[in-house]
Amino acid sequence: MKYKQSIVLFIGIILVGSFCACTKRSEEPVQMKKLKVITTLFPLYDMAKSIGAGKAEVSLLLPPGVEAHSFEPKPSDIVKINEADIFVYTGEFMEPWAEDIIKGAVNKNLIIVDASHGTTMIPGVFHDSDAPAGSLDPHIWLDFDNAKVIVKNIVQAFQLQDSVNKDFYEQKANDYRGKLTELDAVYKKTLATCKDRKIVYGGHYAFGYLATRYGLKYLAAQGVSPDAEPTANDLIKLVEQIKRDKIKYVFYEELTSPRIAETIAGETKAGLLLLNAAHNVSRDQVDQGITFFDILKKDLDNLKVGLSCQ
Ligand SMILES: [Zn+2]
Fold first, then answer.
1. What residue ranges of the chain have pLDDT lower than 50?
2. Residue 109 CA, ligand 1 centroid: distance in Å
3. For residue 160, how far is its CA from the centre of ligand 1 (angstroms)?
């Protein structure tokens, strides 16, 4: 197990005047400027939105429905990031393109948060030969302890940019961490009762953290990034394993065609269930105001069915 060593990058934190009470005339009520926060993935967006709670304008860089691993920012996205107060990305293994943004940042007030700073990272299964040696699994938000570290990294940036509301942000972060603790306990209790202990995933290798945390086995048709298609041989092996282990359900991933999972299920008579890694959300989910917790709770419901838990 390796521990991530990189540091959170704070670029030129100059706050003088940035968060003054902005009024046209002195007799007008004091109107604080809202923090502008840009996040890459949905869990980071949900955390930042909960911490900012009306005092920040938080946006998700990924357009609705877009696959996260193949996303690259457009020039207009880079402009948007440079105009923000805080930019939160997952880390070098999820968004390798962020390095250029950090190097090229012209806004000296911008705080760039590497959300993976201080998290415990584990190796992933990489089917993609392009993955550099030493690559670690980027799906850190699917471990509740790591999720709490991410919350800490985000709240620190909020407090640096807007120290007047330091306690407000701390309270919101504590509330969020409390909800993570509660749900972790439910996951632990529920997943300890499962008769079947192997998650077979007809998608990419996204649930390594979750499986490790709750003592489950995890088999995915694809590597850490969904770019590389599974070979016929990979699929044959998976099908054989499902038959041998009498696996009842195959899980499929969010926002992509469940073609691979369907193929596997078709060969094995296994049922299909969604297991959502929450990288991004669809337009409908945005409209419904879905939260990271909604996704995690639904995942647990499906795991309960798929793994025969109580
Ligand atoms: Zn992923």
1. 1-29, 31
2. 31
3. 30
